[in-house]
Specification:
Blueprint: H1 5-8, H2 24-36, H3 38-55, H4 58-74
Length: 75
Amino acid sequence: SSWSSAHQIQDGISGVLLDDPRDLVACGRAITDLLLEPDRARRLGDAAQQRVTERFLPDRYISQWIELLAMLTAG
């Protein structure tokens, strides 16, 4: 299966998803909202960084592989 933004970003928690990323008006509105709400933008950024650290960095992948191999050989 292909990875979409929705797999990576939790709307309103670790980022902002648009219904149609080609909708320039909606994109501009989302960017403007973040510029007008710097505390919200900071919270989203912090949550995004944490999510990437926990789920998508190479050391996390290695850890998941080790857990899988351990599980498979424990049987």
